[in-house]
Amino acid sequence: MKPENRLLTLLALAAGTIFLVPVLYSIWMSFQTAHAYYTGTVEFTLGNYARAVGQYNFARYLLNSILVSGLVTILGLTVATMAAFAFARFEFRGGNLLFGATVATLMIPSHISLIPNYLTLAKAGLLDTYAGLVLPAISNGFAAFFLRQYIKGIPKALDEAAYMDGATPLQVLWRIIVPISKPAIFSMGLYIFLTEWNNYIWPLVAVGKEDLFTLQIGLARLYRTNPGEGLIDWPLVMAASTITILPVLLGFLLVERHLVRGITMGAVK
């Protein structure tokens, strides 16, 4: 390895270590008792995790987050892929205007839609339901834009050959476009999942039942938990935070190869 390459590697490792220090410290803190944390001593315990899962219902919050984020990812990818295929492959009246409107949604802050979405779901009777958490998030303009740009880079000759063999547009999408676009689809899937996983404002507005709380809502509620004398039980909060990030880390490790490939290939195209 060349000296300059070694230097770059060491700098990258140092930067990665600096970014990991807060995460590692929070995990370390999650295994300490509140008394040990505030007195500066070391006292290992698994009780924080047991309390978070049992006493503070984090097992239910985890299930809700996985269910909501998973449904939003699946439905959002389905809608975005079909829209991207239509924008990339078909010419129809108003298509450019519709695509421009889709891209324009990226410039609109999401908080602006809070009140309209709330009123719409209230009239439909979908507040305090899983449908109320999922439906407003399945339309993703960025995913449609990203996938459309990726699909435009796929040769149309593949589509034409399939049409000559009698394939329908849906068959072309499912059997040709989707397999070739897997890196981009995996990238967008992870992006949508992370966005919904970290969503705090909409679940806070749309849900009042504790059984439907997501991890972000449950984590915010832990700040009210005191070990005594008005102090926040930070080890308990860190244990809950660790539970919150573990599924995300696992998901990233599973699709990391596809994620990097999708981003780099999309940039080249």
Automatic annotation (TrEMBL):
Role summary: Part of the ABC transporter complex UgpBAEC involved in sn-glycerol-3-phosphate (G3P) import. Probably responsible for the translocation of the substrate across the membrane.
Top-rank taxon: Bacteria
Domain ABC transmembrane type-1: 62-255
Membrane topology annotation: Multi-pass membrane protein
One annotated Gene Ontology cellular component of this protein: plasma membrane
InterPro entries: MetI-like, MetI-like_sf
Protein name per UniProt: sn-glycerol-3-phosphate transport system permease protein UgpE
Residues passing through the membrane, by range: 7-28, 61-85, 97-118, 130-151, 172-194, 234-255
Record SUPFAM superfamilies: MetI-like
GO biological process: transmembrane transport
Family: Belongs to the binding-protein-dependent transport system permease family.
Assembly mode: The complex is composed of two ATP-binding proteins (UgpC), two transmembrane proteins (UgpA and UgpE) and a solute-binding protein (UgpB).
PANTHER family xrefs: ABC TRANSPORTER PERMEASE PROTEIN MG189-RELATED-RELATED, SN-GLYCEROL-3-PHOSPHATE TRANSPORT SYSTEM PERMEASE PROTEIN UGPE
Record Gene3D superfamilies: MetI-like
Record's subcellular location: Cell inner membrane; Cell membrane
UniProt lineage: Bacteria, Pseudomonadati, Pseudomonadota, Alphaproteobacteria, Hyphomicrobiales
Pfam families xref list: BPD_transp_1 (PF00528)
Keywords, ordered alphabetically: Cell inner membrane, Cell membrane, Membrane, Transmembrane, Transmembrane helix, Transport
Keyword Iron-sulfur: no
